[in-house]
Amino acid sequence: MDTATLTILFDNYAGLPELQTLWGFAALIRTPVNTILFDTGSNGRVLLKNMQALGIEPIEIDTIFLSHNHWDHIGGVDSILELNSNVTLVLHEGFSKHLINDLRGLCHTLIIVGNEPYELAHGIYSTGILAADPPEQALILEIGASLAIIGGCSHPGIAQLVEQSQAFVNKPVRWAIGGFHLMYSHDAEITAAIAQLQALGVSEVAATHCTGDAARIAFRAAYGAGFIEGGVGRTIELC
């Protein structure tokens, strides 16, 4: 695909003043072929409220992609499925078997991703499960000659997600977007994470949610114009 847009629907960082912030992450990704809800935040009522303020209807969503099983990323899934059950729900084998069984009857199609990368549609992939606590999958978008990688919390490490994506699709990652899980990291760890991404050729970052204030400041300084402000309500053009 040549273009896509990503709108942050749920975040603990502010973007547009009329939207509510809570701990967690969700984003709506529009591509020429799919409308994907990536994660669902921690609270369905707030997710729906923010969607309504942005003029987004649940019925527009055809795919829900859940990165990992933490409450702040799956808390709104029931609220969306109650209003639109005609969706493809993408989980991975690291989710609870009981949750998988419950969700199977609440959606149109359930995809359970394993350890290997998985093609969801043309130019849209799961990284497959990467080992962490908890295990996590990320979303890969193929935008022209480059890739965008969207992570929920990047528990395996944002550099590992980028490396997995580049190895699978064999294209450079231009954008890294989402939570980078550096909120408990020391300055040296943050510096190392930035250096890793730059060495991998990542030229634009939207570091939000669990990245942490200190890491966001460091990424903003290191990336300059390549740092994309996150926050609920922000739209990122991928083209």
UniProtKB/TrEMBL annotation:
Gene3D superfamilies: Ribonuclease Z/Hydroxyacylglutathione hydrolase-like. Pfam families: Lactamase_B. The keyword Transferase does not apply. SMART domains: Lactamase_B. It comes from the Bacteria. The keyword Cell membrane does not apply. Keywords: Hydrolase. One of its GO terms (molecular function) is transferase activity. Residues 32-209 form the Metallo-beta-lactamase domain. This is MBL fold metallo-hydrolase.
